[in-house]
Amino acid sequence: MKDRLLSVLKFILAVLLLPLVIGITSSFLENLRKMSEGVCLAFGWGVVVYLILHILLYEPAQVFDASKKMAEKTIGFLSPWVKVAGFCVPFFTILSFVLYYFASLIWKGAPLLPYFAFLASFTFTMHMVFTANALKKKQPGWLKENYFFSIFSIYIVNILIIAGAFYFLSGDFSFADFISRCGDVAGAIYTASFRQLFVVEGR
Question: Is the predicted pLDDT of residue 77 greater than 80, yes or no?
């Protein structure tokens, strides 16, 4: 009984994260559209191309494992976090932005960001797909409460990392506007949900 009650509480916590997931996704896409059309399209195609590759052709499990191990080694000094680093830190996605930074120093003025945006979204999608599969197996749960909470949290962290990278590497992405918009959308969903519950209770 105690375990089931705890499962329900964790599930409720995961549900409470859902508006934040929607808010951060909506805000990120809105700010991405404000960048050059090439960057926006490249990022979108990176997601699509990876999903086609994964579903129809090949699942690059070895590439994900390599990324996971590198992330774990990178923050190995933070021993309590080593086990989750591989899931929370999209190593190859971050590497994509680092490579862009150095490439932009070498080929100044060249429109390189769309290519690296494609690579970043491709590796980000790979990271999320394999992370979701791994967590689904490791955290069965009665309501899959641990799974939902974990995947929502990891997704939020990853989007924040990508948004931060775009902010530092491109003047077209406003991180302040991204956070503000995220708060507005999530807040509106929370408010609407509580009002709906109140109306239902009032009846």
Answer: no
Residue 29's SS3 state is: helix
Tens-place pLDDT, residues 107-134: 988 899 999 999 999 999 999 999 999 8
How many domains is the chain partitioned into structurally?
Answer: 1
Determine how many CB atoms are found less than 10 A away from the CB of residue 114.
Answer: 19
- Cα–Cα–Cα angle for 29, 67, 80, rounded to 5 degrees: 95
Residue 89, CA atoms < 13 Å, CB-side half-sphere: 20
CA nearest neighbour of 138 among 150, 128, 156: 150
DSSP string, 62-105: HHHHHHHHHHHHHTTTSGGGHHHHHHH--HHHHHHHHHHHHHHH
Residue 143 DSSP SS3: coil
Structure-token match 């689904």, residue found: 136
Eight-state DSSP code of residue 170: -
**Exposed, middle or buried: residue 156 (CB in 10 Å: 0-12, 13-18, 19+)?**
middle
- Residues 7 and 2: their CA atoms lie apart, in Å, by 9
Domain boundaries, position 102 = 2-202
Q: Please, are residues 97 and 116 in contact by the beta-carbon 8 Å criterion? A: yes
- 118 close to 99: Cβ distance less than 8 angstroms: no
pLDDT in tens, 164-175: 999 999 888 999
